[in-house]
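ok so i was messing around last nite and threw this chain in just to see what happens. nothing serious, just curious
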Amino acid sequence: MRVRVATTVLGITAALLTVSACSTDTTGANHDTAASARTGSPTDAAQQAAPLTSAALETRLLDQRDLGSGYLRKPERPAQHDDVTVIGCPALSELGGDAATGATLTFPRKAKTAFTYGGSSSEFSEELYSDGATKLSDGIGRIFDAMTGCPTYQVVASGTPIDIASQKLPAPHGLGDEQWSQLLTFSAGGRSTVVKQTAIRDGSLLLVVSGSPALVDRHLDKALTKATAAS
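result:
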């Protein structure tokens, strides 16, 4: 079955479109089979927390001073609405129009940034979203469940077939109200890259960090601390 879904989902556009030009990057990867990544559920108090504006979210993103030496800010890519064709993943197919339109994923209040590290192919990106706790929980939960529900599938992006392997990773317990984590391996043209994605919901705020596994692990705590700091 084929379904067209937006490439903006969880900020993996760059990985999907450039994997064929990237060298293998498995630094810090953990390929162990993992348990479910979701814990907890929105509380009444969290649901009532006022969402932050996009401008406020921008001030809570990590910058080069937070990350330290060796990081270069990636220029923001022009907004794109190109579709990719997903083959062999019924779970993603079931999302259908929701995934294609971003109805449950592209929240209106958002901010993002991305960096390269050490002049290599290693990258780190951060996305912040703010909305009602239930909306955030349902939206991010559905896409993580769908993606990790298919151990392997394929996408065709800009005419390039890309094989994807996904697996759940242990949730980072003790951070925020809910947590999700997964490992994605993109393979094309005989090369591959590994991307770790971890999402944490804290009240009406959702943090998603993606990139080289070692960089995600290194900066997750500081990203959440800055994102949830009092205004």
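not much to say yet. The mean pLDDT is 77.
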